[in-house]
């Protein structure tokens, strides 16, 4: 669980104001801290901000690092508390109103609680060391369904569950990170586990980039780009879930999802999907063909698969495309 100890020389140089020494100490942990902050906040942008605030706080407070815990544990303590502060601000955000041109949304199944959710690029997912008490696999613990479920938990319960069950820190370590008691951590973890309501796929997803996954996504792309509503709906599970943060509209079940897809595919626009990956899942940048042949980015779809079908589809706005190395427009051919 612990990383290699920081050398006394490196720590001394950093405390003396050596930027390079500080970066050498902290850089090995930055990517996993970003993933941690993303789980805590559900927002890629907010996670980036929280990591920068964590590094700044660590730099300013380096004299307070006494070495009783590892540097990694100390950084996680700072990052977790930065995220708890950030969640107070994020909770005041209001949902976004419908703004997709040329389409009126069908009546939703319900309005979602978690609307300021953002995708996380697979290219930035590193291997995060997990402790012996971790209860989740890496892929499951970064999926959109899991991250969404985390956001509904009260902040302290959320922090405890991630530190204990996802990262595998010992209860005593978590108590020290959160400046609380062992009994408090045990109680919060019990409540968090009971309150974590996740959508369960009917069948396991095929392995990433496997022939089975590629076959499903190829059918999805073909149906979407050809506006074949019947073929698209045939790929959906009976309990498929469609959402579109930061708009709160949610559609659950094949018929509501079909009405939503009919509105998009029946708008008269022609789409092109460009593959990428987000949250360990297949994803696609969606581009609409303009009259001049230029294709304009309209959003990003992330798919959750169950067996040979799609059990969830999350549509994000076009401002996330750049995080995946996708341009806002594609030139005419």
TrEMBL record:
Gene3D superfamilies referenced in this protein's UniProt entry, alphabetically: 1.10.1740.10, 3.10.450.50, Winged helix-like DNA-binding domain superfamily/Winged helix DNA-binding domain
Keyword Translocase belongs to the record: no
Residue ranges of domain RNA polymerase sigma-70 region in the record: 28-93
Domain SnoaL-like: start-end pairs: 219-310
GO MF annotation terms: DNA binding; sigma factor activity
RNA polymerase sigma factor 70 region 4 type domain boundaries: 145-194
This protein's UniProt keywords: Sigma factor, Transcription, Transcription regulation
One Pfam family cited in the UniProt record for this chain: SnoaL_2
Keyword Transport: no
UniProt cross-references to InterPro entries, sorted A to Z: ECF_Sigma-70_Domain, NTF2-like_dom_sf, RNA_pol_sigma-70_dom, RNA_pol_sigma-G_actinobac, RNA_pol_sigma70_r2, RNA_pol_sigma70_r4_t2, RNA_pol_sigma_r2, RNA_pol_sigma_r3/r4-like
Assembly description: Interacts transiently with the RNA polymerase catalytic core formed by RpoA, RpoB, RpoC and RpoZ (2 alpha, 1 beta, 1 beta' and 1 omega subunit) to form the RNA polymerase holoenzyme that can initiate transcription.
Similarity comment: family membership: Belongs to the sigma-70 factor family. ECF subfamily.
PANTHER family per the UniProt record, alphabetical: ECF RNA POLYMERASE SIGMA FACTOR SIGJ (PTHR30173:SF36), SIGMA 19 FACTOR (PTHR30173)
Name under which the protein is recorded: Sigma-70 family RNA polymerase sigma factor
Organism from which the protein derives: Solirubrobacter ginsenosidimutans
């Amino acid at each position: 669980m612990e990383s290699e100890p920081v050398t006394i020389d490196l720590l001394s140089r950093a405390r003396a104001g050596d930027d390079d020494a500080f970066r050498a100490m902290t850089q090995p942990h930055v990517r996993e801290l970003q993933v941690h902050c993303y789980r805590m906040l559900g927002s890629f942008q907010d996670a980036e901000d929280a990591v920068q605030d964590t590094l700044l706080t660590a730099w300013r407070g380096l004299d307070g690092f006494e070495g009783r815990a590892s540097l990694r544990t100390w950084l996680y303590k700072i990052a977790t508390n930065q995220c708890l502060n950030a969640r107070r601000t994020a909770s005041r955000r209001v949902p976004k109103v419908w703004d997709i041109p040329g389409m009126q949304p069908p009546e939703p199944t319900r309005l979602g609680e978690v609307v300021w959710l953002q995708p996380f690029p697979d290219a930035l997912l590193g291997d995060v060391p997990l402790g012996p008490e971790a209860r989740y696999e890496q892929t499951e613990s970064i999926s959109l369904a899991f991250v969404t479920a985390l956001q509904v938990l009260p902040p302290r319960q959320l922090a405890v569950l991630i530190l204990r069950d996802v990262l595998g820190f010992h209860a005593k370590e978590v108590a020290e990170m959160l400046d609380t008691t062992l009994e408090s951590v045990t109680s919060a973890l019990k409540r968090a586990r009971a309150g974590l309501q996740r959508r369960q796929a009917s069948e396991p997803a095929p392995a990433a980039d496997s022939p089975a996954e590629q076959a499903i996504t190829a059918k999805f792309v073909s149906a979407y780009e050809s506006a074949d509503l019947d073929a698209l709906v045939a790929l959906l599970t009976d309990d498929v879930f469609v959402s579109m943060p930061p708009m709160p509209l949610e559609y659950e079940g094949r018929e509501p999802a079909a009405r939503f897809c009919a509105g998009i595919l029946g708008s008269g626009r022609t789409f092109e999907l460009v593959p990428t990956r987000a949250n360990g899942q297949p994803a696609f940048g969606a581009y609409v063909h303009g009259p001049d042949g230029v294709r304009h980015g309209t959003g990003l779809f992330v798919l959750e698969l169950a067996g040979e079908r799609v059990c969830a589809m999350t549509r994000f706005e076009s401002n996330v495309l750049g995080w995946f190395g996708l341009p806002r427009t594609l030139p005419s051919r």
